[in-house]
């Protein structure tokens, strides 16, 4: 594209759209930009493409200013997740939602009472579980055989892989708890679970998370489709005290 | 930070003394509070105000997520992640910014995280199902037909370009971020953002040509490979 004597437009080889788009963004080297600019001036077709690209940006900007209504089911689910987040916070801070209690007395209050009861029961239940599972001395004391779904051993995962991986495992399961790891590790997860607002254990998986030995624990969330995930340390070393350092919520698509 | 509530559960939340409405706030009146006030009350321990904030801005955030990710399940997951994160990090919000700017940024980052994960996990390609676009575009009765049609066209076209170009275009052309802001969000050089935008527009142009001509734009010449020469 370095012809200096400009021929008439029908003899021109057109610039491709990438080149014209690059020209608009000032991405071409000076010499190339100059000849491309000259070409566009002389070639009506390329001028049209040039104008159309500028117009496209404006059209996209205009379209970008409009909102898109969130589908009702997504909105409803999001509300439930936020409510359950508020209930969780309330159960640790001690402030209840007056609106929630007023509007949905059956849905939230029992959950709060349940959380309080669970906290009281931590020690008793926890000790019982540890004793019971240790007696079995098996390496897989889970009540569901998870081997078909969960990875064996301690897979290496990054923190950002936890949510999608756990979601995949849980979606493959039939809803029964997927418990992997030694009896000690599972018992430790149970103790950890019993201290949470929703103590129902859905997943235990030993893992190396960003190089650190940890345990991935999944608990039933605010709705049947929601699983709260925790990454904890301290469950594999026999001390039995789970220390969570990451948590998130995933929503199963097949429930 | 007013993180400690003097009032126990028996007292409804109160808003600041400098505010004209010093009465206990009921659910209906939350709607009259501005974003800053809702967020401030949330940080102070009010369990309801964050939900109102979400309701107020969810259509805007849904638009960002669905354009960036192109798939409703992914967009719903990303938004859920983003709003939970915003719920928990609300005390890190600096009062001099707009709440929507802050929320927007959290949503964009959650979407980009999803794209990165998806790129790592190549097993999950985007479904090329045109019928889905109607579903993405929201309930039919809410908007005039041509608005809806254009929205579906754009969503369909965006789905067909590569995710890097799409993210850059959504940020710069659609959401109005500057090249520098987009570069910071995307974690790449400004030149890379410009290049992704340019190439993304070049990809989108033929896909949206119909859209442009029906809006009174010019008739674009059909270019064939034989007519076209590159510069590389």
Automatic annotation (TrEMBL), chain A:
Membrane spanning residue stretches: 112-132
Source taxon at top rank: Bacteria
Keyword entries, A-Z: Membrane, Transmembrane, Transmembrane helix
Protein name (Swiss-Prot/TrEMBL): Uncharacterized protein
Automatic annotation (TrEMBL), chain B:
Keywords: DNA-binding, Sigma factor, Transcription, Transcription regulation
GO molecular function: DNA binding; sigma factor activity
Stretches the record annotates as Disordered: 121-145
Keyword Transcription listed: yes
Residues in RNA polymerase sigma-70 region domain copies: 53-119
SUPFAM superfamilies: Sigma2 domain of RNA polymerase sigma factors, Sigma3 and sigma4 domains of RNA polymerase sigma factors
Annotated ranges, domain RNA polymerase sigma factor 70 region 4 type: 153-204
Pfam families in alphabetical order: Sigma70_r2, Sigma70_r4_2
Domain of life: Bacteria
GO biological process: DNA-templated transcription initiation
Family: Belongs to the sigma-70 factor family. ECF subfamily.
PANTHER family, alphabetized: ECF RNA POLYMERASE SIGMA FACTOR SIGM, RNA POLYMERASE ECF-TYPE SIGMA FACTO
Protein name in UniProt: RNA polymerase sigma-70 factor (ECF subfamily)
Species for this entry: Kribbella sandramycini
Lineage of producing organism: Bacteria, Bacillati, Actinomycetota, Actinomycetes, Propionibacteriales
């Amino acid at each position: 594209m370095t012809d200096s004597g400009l021929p008439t437009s029908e003899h021109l080889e057109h610039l491709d759209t990438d080149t014209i788009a690059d020209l608009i963004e000032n991405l071409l080297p000076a010499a190339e930009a100059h000849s491309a600019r000259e070409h566009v001036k002389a070639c009506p077709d390329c001028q049209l493409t040039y104008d159309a690209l500028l117009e496209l940006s404006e059209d996209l900007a205009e379209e970008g200013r409009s909102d898109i209504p969130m589908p009702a089911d997504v909105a409803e689910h999001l509300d439930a997740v936020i409510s359950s987040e508020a209930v969780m916070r309330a159960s640790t801070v001690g402030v209840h939602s007056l609106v929630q209690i007023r509007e949905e007395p059956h849905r939230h209050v029992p959950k709060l009472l349940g959380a309080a009861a669970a906290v009281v029961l931590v020690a008793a239940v926890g000790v019982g579980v540890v004793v019971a599972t240790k007696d079995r001395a098996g390496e897989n004391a889970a009540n569901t055989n998870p081997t078909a779904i969960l990875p064996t051993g301690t897979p290496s995962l990054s923190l950002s892989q936890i949510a999608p991986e756990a979601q995949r495992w849980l979606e493959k399961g039939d809803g029964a708890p997927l418990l992997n790891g030694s009896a000690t590790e599972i018992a430790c997860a149970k103790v950890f679970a019993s201290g949470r607002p929703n103590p129902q254990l859905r997943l235990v998986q030993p893992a190396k998370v960003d190089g650190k030995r940890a345990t991935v624990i999944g608990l039933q969330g605010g709705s049947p489709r929601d699983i709260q995930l925790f990454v904890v340390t301290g469950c594999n070393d026999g001390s039995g005290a789970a220390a969570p350092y990451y948590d998130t919520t995933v929503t199963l698509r097949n429930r | 930070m007013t993180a400690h509530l003097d009032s126990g559960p028996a007292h409804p939340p109160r808003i600041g003394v400098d505010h004209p409405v010093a009465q206990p706030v009921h659910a209906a009146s939350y709607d009259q509070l501005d974003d800053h006030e809702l967020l401030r009350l949330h940080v102070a321990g009010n369990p309801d105000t964050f939900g109102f904030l979400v309701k107020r801005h969810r259509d805007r955030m849904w638009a960002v997520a669905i354009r960036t990710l192109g798939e409703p399940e992914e967009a719903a997951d990303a938004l859920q992640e983003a709003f939970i994160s915003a719920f928990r990090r609300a005390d890190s919000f600096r009062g001099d910014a707009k709440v929507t700017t802050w929320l927007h940024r959290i949503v964009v980052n959650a979407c980009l995280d999803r794209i990165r994960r998806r790129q790592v996990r190549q097993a999950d390609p985007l479904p090329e199902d045109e019928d889905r676009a109607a579903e993405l575009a929201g309930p039919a009765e809410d908007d005039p037909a041509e608005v809806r049609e254009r929205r579906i066209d754009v969503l369909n076209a965006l789905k067909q370009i590569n995710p890097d170009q799409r993210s850059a275009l959504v940020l710069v052309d659609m959401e109005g971020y500057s090249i520098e802001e987009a570069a910071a969000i995307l974690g790449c050089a400004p030149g890379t953002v410009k290049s992704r935008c340019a190439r993304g527009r070049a990809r989108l142009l033929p896909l949206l040509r119909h859209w442009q001509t029906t809006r009174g734009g010019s008739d674009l010449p059909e270019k064939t490979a034989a007519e076209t020469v590159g510069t590389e």
